[in-house]
Task: structure prediction
Amino acid sequence: MRIVVLGAGFGGLELTTLLSEEFGDDLDLVLIDKAEGFVFGFAKLDVMFGRATADDVLHHYAEIVKPGVRVVRSTIRSIDPVTKHVSTDAGDFEADILVVALGADLDPAGTPGLVEAGHEFYTVAGAFALRNVLEEFEGGRVVVGVTSTPFKCPPAPSETALLMHDLLNRRGLLDSSTVSLVMPMGVPIPPSPAASAALLEAFAERGIEWHPGKLITGLDPRRKVAQFSDGGEIGFDLFLGVPVHRAPAVVLESGMAVDGWIQVDPLTLETAFPDVYAVGDVTSIGTPKAGVFAEGQAIVAAARIAARLRGSGPAEATYDGRGLCYLEFGRDAVAKVDVMFRSGEAPVGSLEGPSAELVGDKVRFGSSRRSRWFGDAG
Ligand SMILES: Cc1cc2nc3c(=O)[nH]c(=O)nc-3n(C[C@H](O)[C@H](O)[C@H](O)COP(=O)(O)OP(=O)(O)OC[C@H]3O[C@@H](n4cnc5c(N)ncnc54)[C@H](O)[C@@H]3O)c2cc1C
Result:
């Protein structure tokens, strides 16, 4: 049975690894991605704030050697979810089972003035370019703002505000600077009141201005102000933005998206098209767009595909909507938030830390994935 996996991000890499581990050379799986390699979302912040280099955090797809897996580096141009035919710059692929794990595309130009007057820290290129900008920043009004919903990793803007405060402190620029955070939610992490309270306390302690319930609709390059969705505005010297997110164009053109994203069965990850699964940020499953959730969904989709390959009867694995997220608090501390998004129920979440010990936990979270997905060379 031919399996084609579109996208080698958190979801595609986990699903591919699990199937290769179980079926080895009996597997016939093609994994397609246009990028040179994978970068963990959180590693973008590490590069931006000077804690790692771009080379440290890029894990090359060319290093993946897995039984039963062929990795193809190419851009996917069209997907037919009915025939399961995929066209790429490297040729066409026919699948018996298709998995769409293409993530969310980012559109900085979708917010007026962002490209001209601000910076975005969500693309790999944007975050890496910010490293020099932050090194050369001479102080002033820093605004971290979100331009649309949904957006990946809802804690990331809060982490960025806290790490920016650390950077200003380290560089002796706190007296001449302010940090403001503009977010669409009423609290930083809605499913976890404890995490939200800890973040609000950290903001208050550091004098980070918190602007809840607002989106940034545009930047005026001439006046150096960012406009809020409620008509207000805020002046900035350095604007760090979360750009507009959309499903990749190839997904929108495939007819698979409903209201902008792929709808899936929240328990099985099946789409409306037989033998086509979708996992991760490209879906509208109801969990936040984050790697841990993409990974959890990939585990269930892999288990269901494995049952099919084994011919061992109906698959039983179902998705529970659980995710463990690490949260940078600055001052060399990390917190762990355990959240559960069960379909039809209010999400709940607990908090551990922040503490210095959890810094090591977060490092192990990344290195364990890196060695499973890429081998030691990755
Ligand atoms: C600053 C920041 C911090 C973050 N921190 C965390 C964190 O601490 N924890 C966490 O869990 N998540 C975090 N995230 C979110 C996380 O990175 C994403 O949610 C996660 O990568 C989604 O996984 P995915 O498999 O759905 O998609 P992705 O990992 O985005 O993978 C999609 C893949 O599809 C490929 N692709 C897209 N279109 C095409 C095409 N047409 N042809 C070929 N290939 C294509 C892309 O190249 C990409 O490799 C963070 C994100 C950011 C921006």
